[in-house]
Amino acid sequence: MSHTDRNAPVGVFDSGVGGLTVAREIMRQIPEERIVYFGDTARLPYGSKSKDTVLRYSRQIVRFLRTQEVKAIVIACNTASAYALETVASESDIPVIGVINAGARAAVHATKNGRIGVIGTVATISTGIYTEVIRTMRPGIEVFGKACPLFVPLVEEGLFHDSVTDEVASRYLSVLKEKYIDTLVLGCTHYPLLRSTMRRLMGENVTLVNPAYETALELKDLLKEKEMNRDPAAEMQGEQYQFFVSDLADQFTNFATAILPKEVKETRKINIEEY
Amino acid sequence: MSHTDRNAPVGVFDSGVGGLTVAREIMRQIPEERIVYFGDTARLPYGSKSKDTVLRYSRQIVRFLRTQEVKAIVIACNTASAYALETVASESDIPVIGVINAGARAAVHATKNGRIGVIGTVATISTGIYTEVIRTMRPGIEVFGKACPLFVPLVEEGLFHDSVTDEVASRYLSVLKEKYIDTLVLGCTHYPLLRSTMRRLMGENVTLVNPAYETALELKDLLKEKEMNRDPAAEMQGEQYQFFVSDLADQFTNFATAILPKEVKETRKINIEEY
Cβ atoms within 10 A of the Cβ of A213, count? Predict the structure, then answer.
C-alpha cells in the first residue's frame, strides 16, 4: 500500500444512478475526499442478470477505475456487491468494499426482536447473502428476504408517490409484515426513494435501514485506519467529483444534480467494453 | 448475392425474449426455413438506452450472426429497428429487415379513419419513426405515439392479467383513446402478451396490429423474390432452430419452450462483447 497516494480519489460504481445515494453519503460524511463515480447505464439493470455477467462487468469497471488512479473502490450496488465483491476484492491490491456488510451490521444493531426483513433485486435476494452475513454477525437472527423486481422501474418512472407503487409495495411487503420483522434493510440503492411509502406500509415500529449511510461510515474508518484519508490541505487537482457513464451522459447529469449537494457540471461517456 | 447459400439459416435478434414472437411467426409461415436466434439478455433492455449504444450492440450481434453464416437478418426488436436498421442494412451485403416497416404497412392497411396510435419503448417513440414511415406510405394519416416504459417490466413479471397492469395500461392508453384512433400498433415485441388487456381497454372497434406477423410475411416475400428461400428437400444439417444468448441461457430455454411450437433443447451462451 505504501505506493498509494492518500490524496487520490475514491472510486464508486453502480449499474446506474442508484449508487449516487452512496456517493452523496460519502460527500456528506467525508467532505475532503475526492470521488470518481462510474454508472454502467449502457448495461443496467444488474438485478436480473447472472453472477458471471455481473462479475465480468464489475471487473471491467474496476479496470477502468484503476486507470483513474483511485486509492480504494466502493461497490455502491447491492447486486454487484452480492455477486462480485469477494472476487474483485481478492484480485485487488487496493481496498474494495461493498454495501452489504454495512447494511447487515446496521440491521443487526437495530433489531430488538431478532427478526429482520431484506428487500432487493432478484439477484441479491437469490444469493441469500444478507442472511449469511447477518447470521455470521449474530447467529440465531431470523432473516426474511423478498425480491421486489418492479421497484426499480417504478422509481425510474418517478412514481414515488402513486397508487400503482402503493399497490405493488403493499403486495411485496405484506409477506414481511406477516413475519413480525422489526427491521427492514433497503437492499437496493433505488429503494430509499420509496422510503415514505414503505414507512407508511410498515408502520412506525419497523426500523428502515439504508446501507448507503453505513457504507460511507465504513469507508471513513477504513481510510483512517490505513492512513489513506486525504489531507484536506492538499491541493485539489481538477474537479473534486468526477462522473463517468457508459450511456446517456446528459440524462445522468440531470439526475445527479437533482440528488447531490453540488451541481454536476459534466458527465463523461466511455466505452466500458474496452476495459 | 450469388455466393449466398439459399439453404443457410435466417438470423433473428432481439434484446431478449421479445423477438421470439417474431421467430414464432417465421416458424409458422415459412416452416422450411432454419433460424439462428440471438437474445442480448446480458444487456437488455434496449428501450431506455441511446442510439449510439443500441447501434453498437446491433453491429456486434450482426457480426456474431455472420459467423453463423446466415443468409439474411431480421431485427426482431422495435428499438433496434428504429435506431440501427438503416445503418446496419447499408453496411451489410445480405438483406437486413426490421419490424417497423411491416408494422407500419399493416396499420396503414387497417385504418379507416386515418388515425393510428403507436405504443412502444421510450426510445422507439422518441425517434418518431413509426410516424415517419406511416406518413411516407400514406401522407395525411395522423399518428399518435405513446411510450409505455412499465409494460416490459410488467410482462417480465408475468403480470398479464392483473389489476396493477390494468391501472398502468389504462393511464397509458387513455391519451390514445381521446384521439379517436381506430388502429393501435403494438410497437414492442413484449406487448402482444398484454393483448387481452389492451383489447378490453380500447374496445372492439380498434384494430390491434402486431408487427411480428407482417414481418414474417415480408421475410417470406423477400426470400422468394431473391431466390434465397430454402429448398424444403435439402438436408437439414444440425438443428433447424438454434438459440444463443449473452446471459441466463436456462431461463431463456424455459421461456422459449413455453411460447414456441417446438421444445427448445439447448440455448448457448456467448460473450457478445467479443464480436
Answer: 19
pTM recorded for the entire structure:
0.93
B144, β-bridge pairs: B117
Q: What is the nearest CA distance from B11 to chain A, expressed in angstroms?
A: 23
Task: Judge: B247–A50 Cβ closer than 8 Å, yes or no.
Answer: yes
- Of A53, A56, A153, nearest to B150 by CB-CB distance is A153
Residues 213-272 of A with CB under 8 A from B: 246-248, 271
Cell of B68: 453463423
State pLDDT tens for residues A248-272: 999 999 989 988 999 999 999 999 9
Q: What is the per-residue pLDDT across A100-147, written as a single tens digit (0 to 9) for each? A: 999 999 999 999 999 999 999 999 999 999 999 999 999 999 999 999
The three-class DSSP label of residue B267 is: strand
Helix (H) or strand (E) holding B26, with range, is helix B20-29
Interatomic CA distance for residues B232 and B240, integer angstroms: 12
Q: What element of type H or E holds B269?
A: strand B267-269
The one catalytic residue in A27, A76, A133, A188 is A188
ipTM: 0.90
- Cα angle A81, A203, A100 (rounded to 5 degrees) comes to 10
Predicted confidence at residue B3, as pLDDT, reads: 64
Which A residues in the span 39-78 are in contact with B, Cβ-Cβ below 8 Å? 41-43, 48-50, 52-53, 56
> Beta-carbon neighbour count of residue A66 at 10 Å?
15
> DSSP string of B46-62?
-TTS-HHHHHHHHHHHH
Q: Does A1 have pLDDT greater than 90?
A: no
Average pLDDT over residues B241-264: 94
Q: Are A108 and A138 in contact (CB under 8 A)?
A: yes
Instruction: Please answer whether residues B235 and B227 qualify as being in contact, where contact means their C-beta atoms are separated by less than 8 angstroms.
Output: no
Q: What pLDDT is stored for residue B236 in this prediction?
A: 86
